[in-house]
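Summary for the funding panel

The consortium committed to producing paired sequence-structure records for every protein in the target list. Below we show the first two records in order, beginning with the earlier of the two.
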Amino acid sequence: MPDYFNCLETYIHAVLFILFQLCFIVQLYYLVSNHTRLAGYKPAEELPPVLIPISVIISARNEAQNLQENLPFILQQNYPDFEVVVINDCSYDSSDTVLEDLQRQYPLLKVVTITEHQRFKTGKKFALTLGIKAAKNEYLLFTDADCKPASENWIGRMAANFGTNAQIILGYSPYYKTRNFLNRFTRYETLKTAVNYLSGALSGDPYMGIGRNLAYTKTLFFSAKGFASHMHVISGDDDLFVNQHATRDNTTIEIHPDAFMFTSAKTTISSWYRQKKRHMGVGKLYKNRHRRMLSFDAMSGFLFYILLVLCLVFKYEPLLALGLFALRLILQLSIYSRIFKKLDGRDLIWYLPFFDIIYYMYLNVFGTIGTFIKTTQWK
């Protein structure tokens, strides 16, 4: 009987180590096959000359302070032909007064006002649809009221990509830096998300974008019937739209620092939790291949650390297990140091070994929460 249990124990340890190696291989695939593309990507240094008329669209609900602080930086962009369409979505603060004052200073500002109806509750997708209809131009650039462009050339950098016959342009939106743990991890998670979706686009398989810095054509929007297929979902005006309509041929990226759109991260755990619960809830509506791709990454990364600990605890090939861990970490540091430098996250590379563990725990926890909990309010 002791021999039987010894054999069983050896068998279990062998299976665990094989699974650990499989997780390592999957993680190696994402690093080498996808993320190296972004590490080697170089945005154009010179600002290309472009004269495409642009409509910037912003949906705002009770954003009076943000509109007052950030909207002038968009209205003062160094671009020859653009308008800014702000949808004042059922606001009950002083947004209307702020927008009226700004309209007097900037004739290129157009305001669309939505009033609350007791029997008809609007959401961001409805507001954006009205804004798109009100826009006079074919080329649309989206951001949020709490966002500030990194430079006066934000519109120019994003618009230049339409000259390549692209219909969707995926931009990047980092968070401002502050000195606390939640901010650092939120910035890290945002960086990792960007690494994935920007690498996917460079690999010819774009699957998501972020509404804080996103552009597409009006023709594409209406030919795809707008948000009709997912209007019932509170989130997804950005990533679900891109997931359904982005292709290898119609999508490109813009990551020049002048094209960044900065915003402030959530400052409390509760507000951060509500935001992430809302975002993760739409992942189940992605195309099947994208859901599989993201699930393999999340599960393999999580199990990689769990199985590493088990191999060390049970002392089954501990040196080899540590060697694979070290190899993966070295590759991460090599690849991500170049990417983080490009995406305003150079300081976060030192937190990578620790944040990587938390990140994969976070993906699995919020992925599960998003599957079972429905969010019914966007603001």
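The next record, for a separate protein in the list, is shown here:
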Amino acid sequence: MTTASEDITLDGPREGPRSGNAPRQLVVLLHGLGANGQDLIALAPVLGTVLPDAVFVAPNAPSPCDMAPFGYQWFSLQARTPESLYIGAEEARPLLDRFLNDELARYGLGDEQLVLVGFSQGTMMALHTALRRAGACAGVIGYSGLLVGGERLAQEIASRPPVLLVHGDQDEVVSPEALPAATAALQGLGVRVTQDLRPGLGHGIDEAGVALAASFLQDIFGENES
């Protein structure tokens, strides 16, 4: 089981800023179960055209995946009850929080310049962590994930960053029904949510989903920096 031990330090591939300037934004990419930071850092060159002054960081999750012979996990998914998902995400959250704080300090940035992008289990962690941080980040982008602990969120929510959720309507791993469920729960708590159900898409990210992310980033930062 993943624990937020002080002995664990997250790290992974980094890219940017493509402008060569000092970073003005920090985009943290959180991979899914059984993958690693290399899985999502490929988004950096594309999203970097929108945010050329952004630094992209894709940390490897803290534990070896217990359901595959390779890759990492934020927490075990061998049990997938709502309670076990909440416990797993909550145990991993302090470690991710510490990483985010350290990265912001590294680049001299504030929460208002931070974006979390997640895929699958990474989306679970992005939402679970961002909504409980005292300082609101600039935004959260979640692909093919779900909202963990939605029934507890009213008591635990600390900030309300804008959220983009994208999900394939043919997702065979995380039910597409997770999209409207998360949207309704978040909107009910005053979170601005943009959602898109991608036709014909399974458990993955398509070009249209990346384009939605680029538009979302332009919107939340109020300018086109390309």
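Regarding this second record: The first strand starts at residue 14 and ends at 15. The two ends are 43 Å apart (CA to CA).
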